[in-house]
Design goal:
By secondary structure, this protein is an alpha/beta fold. The protein is built from ten helices and 15 strands. α6 packs antiparallel against α7.
Length: 425
């Protein structure tokens, strides 16, 4: 079979381009005849204001973390997920704690160093990785944020985890239509890119194996599914468009549908090899307005709930919010694990972290941060277990480990004291 490079593109009549999913024809190096390793993807998911601890962390010495109420949605991919305990960040006193949590989550700059911002910010991990791997993909990095609030009156620090450097935000995309436009739409044609690609693919498909043809069809089906959802969104606005809608719950999709669609876009971007680096905020950090959780059938301030959790009634709502976000995260992982790629799945060839900048939302603690790592990073990470780090191990140690796995050659990251060697196989 004739071999083509991994970054070979099908070009449409308008000059648009779409990367292909991993196919069998890419697996063998034409020179060595040995199987190539699929590219490693990195994503960091952020969930605001910590998690209710006694529903998230098992008792000391208990390795059955998937039995915890908040983590149980991960059971279907449990063998490919690990819980990491003992990770911490330094809280710089005298500046807003929530602003630090989100804006510094992926930088963890040394608080004792010379700061160029009120917060210990620096160039975040995603961009340091993209600096080294972005030549492999059409899109350097993808920054996604599921903040549906219309009253954007809060601090920019609460709404972004990706930064090019101190005070230089990498503004995230919140509109699924905009994400889709970036990934798939042409700028000079009204015809969707799927039709353009399918026109050019007819001859190309003749050289594919039966399995590869199925995989290509599977990929295009995923793109068509997103197109259908985007069209529904467009139809809603054509009929119901209103100016200055301040109530976040009045959007065209429920809270869960919104996050699922953004997650699907991320999965397709990874599957199609459009980018290898992404960040994903499930929700902003502290926010003054209540959030409409449609699926949970209530409208509550997540921040307010964290400070009222000593009341069992309030805590019940908060636990529901925690589990709601975990279920959505689990669904994204399941989608990735359902996509075959090489000898494993897309999830196997990824390193997906879910975490929060607060260990406890009530007391604003930054020790014992809730951190989940999914995917084995091409077999290099031990999964399906609890990794108990020594108390107050810098979160930066995890970021340093992941930076090394992504091939940055980095030897130090922020206030790290060394990589998490026990994380690795």
């Amino acid at each position: 079979m004739k071999s083509i490079g991994r970054r070979k593109f099908l070009l449409g009549a308008s000059g648009s381009a779409m990367a292909l999913p991993w196919l069998e024809m890419h697996a063998a190096d034409p020179k060595t005849k040995k199987d190539k390793e699929p590219p490693l993807r990195f994503a960091s998911f952020y969930s605001p204001m910590g998690f209710v601890r006694d529903h998230f962390f098992p008792e000391k010495g208990d390795s059955d973390f998937l039995s915890m109420p908040t983590l149980s949605p991960l059971k279907s991919v449990g063998s490919k997920v690990s819980l990491i305990t003992g990770l911490s960040r330094v809280n710089v006193r005298g500046v807003d704690v929530h602003n630090q949590c989100s804006s510094c989550f992926l930088s963890s700059a040394d608080p004792n160093g010379k700061l160029k911002s009120p917060y210990p910010m620096d160039r975040t991990l995603d961009h340091l990785i993209a600096d080294k791997v972005s030549h492999r993909t059409p899109i350097r990095s993808l920054e996604l944020n599921c903040n549906s609030f219309k009253d954007l009156k809060e601090s920019i620090y609460l709404d972004n985890i990706s930064w090019y450097g101190p005070e230089h935000v990498a503004t995230a995309m919140k509109d699924p239509s905009r994400v889709y436009q970036r990934l798939f739409k042409t700028s000079n044609s009204n015809k969707d890119i799927t039709d353009l690609i399918l026109e050019d693919a007819s001859n190309f498909k003749k050289n594919l194996s039966y399995h590869d043809k199925d995989k290509l069809d599977e990929y295009f089906d995923s793109v068509r599914e997103i197109e259908t959802q985007i069209e529904k969104l467009n139809e809603y606005y054509r009929k119901r468009k209103r100016a200055d809608v301040l109530e976040p719950g009045e959007g065209p999709m429920t809270r869960g549908e919104y996050i699922k669609l953004m997650g699907k876009l991320l999965v397709v971007a990874f599957q199609g090899d459009l980018t290898h680096v992404a960040t994903f905020m499930l929700a902003p950090e502290r926010w003054g307005s209540p959030q409409h959780f449609h699926e949970l059938q209530f409208t509550k301030s997540h921040h307010g709930l964290t400070h009222g959790q000593e009341n069992e009634g309030v805590k019940k709502f908060l636990v529901q919010v925690d589990r709601f976000y975990m279920e959505l995260f689990a669904e994204i992982l399941e989608q990735m694990d359902a996509i075959s790629e090489g000898a494993g799945t897309l999830l196997d060839h990824s390193m997906i972290t879910l975490g929060s900048g607060l260990g406890d939302g009530k007391d604003h603690t930054m020790n014992e941060l809730p951190i989940i790592v999914a995917g084995s990073a091409n077999g290099r990470i031990k999964t399906g277990r609890v990794l108990n780090c020594p108390e107050n191990t810098p979160l930066a140690n995890l970021w340093l480990s992941q930076a090394k796995l992504m091939g940055t050659g980095m030897k130090q990251f922020a206030d790290s004291t060394g990589p998490l060697n026990d994380l690795l196989v």
